[in-house]
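#struct-pred

JT: dropping the chains for the assembly here, can someone run the whole complex?
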Amino acid sequence: MIALYLFLAGALGASLRFVIDRVVERRVGRRTTAGIVMVNLLGSFVLGLVVGWVHASTLSGASSFHHLSTSMVEWQLILSVGFCGGFTTWSTAMVDTVRLGRTGKPGLAAFHLLATFSGAVLLLQLGYAFTA
Amino acid sequence: MSEDAAQLNSAADDALAELEEPTSAVRPAELLPVAVGGGIGVLLRYWLTHLHGSPHFFPLWLQEQWLLLSINSLGAFLLGLLLAYFHVHPSHGRRLFLTTGLLGGFTTYGTVASLEQHAIIAHAPSTTVLLSIAINLGLGVAAAYVGERLGQRVFRAIEVAP
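RK: done, full complex below.
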């Protein structure tokens, strides 16, 4: 059953990523890496919320995992591995970096790579701080 | 630079400038391959990371890191390869299914950030954290680069061959 839920959550995440990427592209008027950057930053923030929730629920007096209801653990898995995993993407971020570098903008490529990742860790921490 | 290399480079530039297709509004028919591919990609990643063999040679967090590094690097390599393939053999539906859907769902950005954030708040040595970030990003970029270059060579060669 968990496989079906993960499939659905992943399908939803991937579809949402696709739609956001297209909408941003149409706003900008040309192909841009901005859509995927936004998706990865937003997805990291949401994942931070979920991880903080997991952290809070496993530390809240419960001596072991057995005290947690199965459905809650399942929900956390569906939201983190399923939704956030399907929503955010590593492969496109890497190919985009290579392509920026090859269009003669190695500085921009390095900035794209490092700023996105730093931003993702910071936003994840922000989300985590909300719920942990 | 040989003529061949020059041709390859100009093909690479074409691939960059040309954006697979003009930007159009999302059509409902495009969502199906993306959704199905994304769902399958997520399941593949879940099975690889959660149902691996019982012998634990590494501590759990380290295992997770290595698995994720392998999954993400493999995904970046395959995406470079596939984009080069679809550049030569355009197929919109199959491209959406395999790249945006399958590889998009298979690889994940958030979890990498999550593991590094976890290391930071657990007060892991900063050199360890920075090294881990450098390995993840470095290998990812290298894999995407090698995949795309290899794809451009292989699929163009196949196309040119009689």
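JT: nice. Chain A touches chain B through 56 residues (CB under 8 Å). Chain A has a mean pLDDT of 92.
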